[in-house]
Amino acid sequence: MSNRPLYVAQPYLPPLKELLPHLEAIWESRVLTNGGSYHQRFEQALAEQTGCPHIALCTNGTLALVLALQSLRITGEVITTPYSFVATSHALHWNGIKPVFVDIDPTTLNIDPYKIEAAITPQTTAILALHCYGQPADTAAIQKIADIYNLTVIYDAAHAFGVEDAGGSILRHGDMSITSFHATKVFTTFEGGAIVCPDAKAKQRINYLKNFGFADETTVIAPGINGKMNEFSAALGIVQLEHFDSVIARRREIDTAYRAALDGIRGIRCLTFDTSEKRNYSYFPILVSGEYPTARDELYARLKKSGIHSRRYFYPLISNFPTYRSLPSSQPSNLPIANRASDQVLCLPIHAEVTIADVEEIASLIANPQRASTC
Ligand code: T4K
């Protein structure tokens, strides 16, 4: 392994020469944002790529979530997972909605649909679920509960761009789905995100809301926000789409190599994914149990000393942050599986800069934690 640091994520960027003609066109036109031609072309390209015809681009995944909740007029209480990036619950908070945390499934680390019903109250209006690490949530079971209780379903698919189940893109599920094109994601536009809407009317409402609520030059129909994607990001997105399949293929190789190299190490469990689905290999999470010779945090620190910058996604658990920990549903006794996963998880580097030799070295350091500290 080389001496360079290995980060948990590293953006894939296309050759600059592929982007330059688009930059020249943007320079020439002087149209930098507010729904220019690249914005329109990228939305169209994404619709074709995902098979979801009503996609609205957004500044980032967090604003996409805030906007989706706004446009669906969600209020009161929303049932959600504590095992996510903090943006999931923050989007509820920014809409004045109370998150109600439900524990996760120990195998997928997604919200456990069988625990949702017990958390429903007269104030519950929606379920906000996550496809954690790109692993599809149990969309059928979630929809069934939503139908019975007349709840709206929103998916945080920030990790799931490119993931497909038997019916096509995972982004099509729920009343709305959002995804993220942040620098650390499998598909990046620097910052960026998108909202998958069920129909043209829903997308139109998002379009108003992401442009301050303007319906025309003088009409503001709602207190909107600035959630638009700029032309540079949209142009980059168009170029990135050309490379997406090869990016995923490379990640698949790394994922396969990790699984082989980590196999049999006592106390280390690789998360399993449903093999019938088209994955995007967005993260490589392992769970470090009590059978492992050191604590998870010690392994994290030792790897870091060796230049391996793994991350504890998601530690601390959202429900343990000061903003949320006084909520009744945040009690650790309500969320034993999420708390345990949060204490055990480590996401290892997975991106195009990681070589198979790197993977073997990382696995060897994990197999021999004493070695990691002395490197
Ligand atoms: N929902 C979920 C479930 C999410 O995971 C996220 C974001 C969102 C919603 C919100 O979507 P956005 O609003 O972000 O579009 C990162 C990202 O900032 C965040 O986007 C992501 N989830 C989260 C899981 O991870 P940090 O604080 O860990 O990022 P940072 O800056 O420490 O980066 C991690 C590593 O990536 C660095 O050690 C080096 C590498 N890196 C990072 C950046 C920013 C690069 O190589 N280049 C870069 O430009 O949060």
Give the secondary structure arrangement, pairings included.
Layout: E1 6-7, H1 16-29, H2 37-50, E2 55-58, H3 61-71, E3 77-80, H4 87-94, E4 98-101, E5 124-130, H5 139-149, E6 152-156, E7 164-165, E8 168-169, E9 176-180, E10 193-196, H6 200-209, E11 214-216, E12 219-220, H7 231-262, E13 268-270, E14 284-288, H8 296-305, E15 308-309, H9 336-344, E16 345-348, H10 356-367, H11 369-374
Parallel strand pairs: 1-15, 3-4, 3-5, 5-6, 6-9
Antiparallel strand pairs: 2-10, 7-8, 9-10, 11-12, 13-14, 14-16
Helix pairs in contact: 1-7, 2-7, 3-4, 3-6, 7-10
The structure holds ligand T4K.
Ligand T4K binds next to helix 3 and helix 4.
Number of helices: 11
How many E-type strands?
16
CATH C-level label of the largest domain: Alpha Beta
Distinct ligands: ligand T4K
Distance between the termini: 12 Å
| Estimated helix fraction | 25-40%
For the largest sheet, list the strands in their spatial order. Answer: 2-10-9-6-5-3-4
Query: Major sheet, described briefly?
Result: 7 strands, mixed
> Low-confidence spans: pLDDT under 50, at least 5 residues?
none
From the structure above, extract its key features.
375 residues; alpha/beta; Aspartate Aminotransferase, domain 2; Aspartate Aminotransferase, domain 1; 2 domains; seven-stranded mixed β-sheet; three-stranded antiparallel β-sheet; 16 strands; 37% helix; globular; binds ligand T4K
